[in-house]
Amino acid sequence: LISGNSILAALKFDEARGALLYQDVRYLLIRPETLATFQKAVEEKLGAGADALLFTGGFTGGSLSAQRYREVFGLSDEQAVQFMARMGAEIGWGNITITHFDAARGELALMIDSSPFAAAYGKSERGVCHLVRGVFAGLASGIFRRAVVADEDKCVAMGHARCHIVIRVA
Ligand SMILES: [Zn+2]
Description:
Structural class: alpha+beta
Radius of gyration: 16 Å
Distance between the termini: 41 Å
Order of helices and strands: HEEEHHHEEHHEE
Strand content: 15-25%
Bound molecules: zinc ion
Helix content: 40-55%
Largest sheet: 4 strands, antiparallel
């Protein structure tokens, strides 16, 4: 049902380019299996070093989106954090809940129910939702104006009921 989804309701289709746009920013739909296969192929080459590459991709997207939508909608720090969580759910990244946000201390924590990244990946000994971890680290780093560390201490891929990500200034 699109009516409860503000992102899909505002999504524009540029038929000539085959482009999907939200607020003039291009997005693409991609199957989680595509990303999970890519992730495993990179891990085969780099081991845990692959995590940082996916994280960096997410970080860039999160930084750009946070900047863009803060400008477009005139959001405060708190509103930007809530907007990104809501948008994450509306673009299918799982049901994201901000569990802790303290701008003064430079702390942000979130919980993800039904992460498509974990579901597509299968079992793992460490967290696999590096894109989400990166997006919110990018957002947080922009708000705190500092480098941050981001840790997924619980992940469905590790056998937990939901994913949990903790971000704090480095
Ligand atoms: Zn996860």
